[in-house]
């Protein structure tokens, strides 16, 4: 049985790798076609599950989708950009976050399409582990406001061991790998490391940024991204 046109498109990565395709075709007795059909069916089931998580979350908002809204060019632009990110995401937590971000595009939490493009692009680039690290750091920041006479580094120093322990507990990451991921997160604009001549400060600590706060406001909640 030949795969449908839509199923073939879903398997774009496989369809456009002629070397792998040629290897499958070398299998005798027509098994190659059977394997190809099985792979397509498995991929379709996997993507069906992703989309179900996305649409369930999208439909759970307090502001309902309307036919008028879904015919809007701006909404369709946001929708297709989000759908692309959903199909590149493996973790259900991130898929639900993407759905909430799309809801933010039509319930007033995102100012315009340009801002949405920035936020969806940012979320697409961040891995689930990176989103968890940012969420955990932000939770510690909110639980530890700056005290009188204290600077941000001093505040961070109070909770940093607990933050590192939380990352270890939730993600299984030791401090050396955490430090490496925090360096990577600086490029996202969601995290910045403290710099300057602080006494006995050896680097490696920082804070979430205003861009990260914009992202969390747009999606209304990020707590359930933490395992």
Describe the fold and architecture.
The chain is mostly helical and 227 residues long. The chain has twelve helices and two strands, in the order H-H-H-H-H-H-H-H-H-H-H-E-E-H. It has a two-stranded antiparallel sheet with strand order 1-2. Helix 4 packs across helix 7. The two termini are 41 Å apart. Mean pLDDT is 81; it is low at 1-11 and 17-32.
> What is the H/E order?
HHHHHHHHHHHEEH
Uncertain ranges: 1-11, 17-32
Strand-residue fraction?
under 5%
Total helical segments: 12
Major pleated sheet: 2 strands, antiparallel
Gross morphology is globular
Average the pLDDT over all residues and give the rounded result: 81
Kindly state the percentage of residues in helix: 55-70%
Spatial strand sequence of the major β-sheet = 1-2
Terminal CA distance reads 41 Å
Radius of gyration: 22 Å
Give the topology, please.
Elements: H1 5-10, H2 12-15, H3 18-25, H4 31-58, H5 67-70, H6 73-87, H7 92-104, H8 113-125, H9 128-143, H10 152-171, H11 175-186, E1 191-193, E2 206-208, H12 210-219
Antiparallel strand pairs: 1-2
Helix pairs in contact: 4-7, 6-7, 6-8, 7-12, 9-10
Which key phrases capture this entry?
12 helices, 66% helix, 227 residues, mainly alpha, single chain, disordered N terminus
Quick structural summary:
The chain is an all-alpha fold and 227 residues long.
């Amino acid at each position: 049985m030949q795969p449908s046109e839509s199923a073939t498109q879903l398997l774009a990565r496989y369809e456009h790798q002629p070397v792998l395709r040629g290897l499958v075709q070398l299998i005798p007795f027509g098994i190659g076609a059977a394997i190809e059909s099985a792979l397509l069916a498995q991929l379709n089931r996997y993507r069906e599950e992703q989309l179900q998580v996305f649409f369930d979350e999208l439909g759970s908002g307090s502001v309902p989708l309307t036919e008028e809204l879904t015919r809007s060019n701006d909404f369709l632009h946001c929708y297709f950009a989000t759908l692309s990110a959903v199909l590149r995401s493996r973790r259900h937590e991130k898929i639900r976050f993407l759905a909430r971000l799309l809801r933010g595009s039509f319930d007033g939490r995102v100012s315009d399409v340009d801002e949405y493009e920035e936020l969806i692009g940012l979320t697409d680039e961040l891995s689930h582990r990176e989103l968890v690290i940012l969420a955990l750091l932000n939770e510690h920041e909110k639980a530890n406001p700056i005290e009188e006479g204290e600077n941000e580094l001093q505040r961070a120093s109070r909770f940093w061991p607990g933050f590192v322990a939380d990352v270890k507990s939730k993600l299984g990451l030791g401090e050396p790998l955490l430090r490496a991921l925090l360096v990577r997160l600086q490029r996202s604009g969601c995290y910045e490391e403290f710099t300057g001549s602080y006494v006995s400060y050896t680097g490696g600590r920082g804070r979430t940024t205003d861009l990260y706060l914009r992202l969390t406001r747009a999606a209304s909640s990020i707590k359930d991204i933490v395992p």
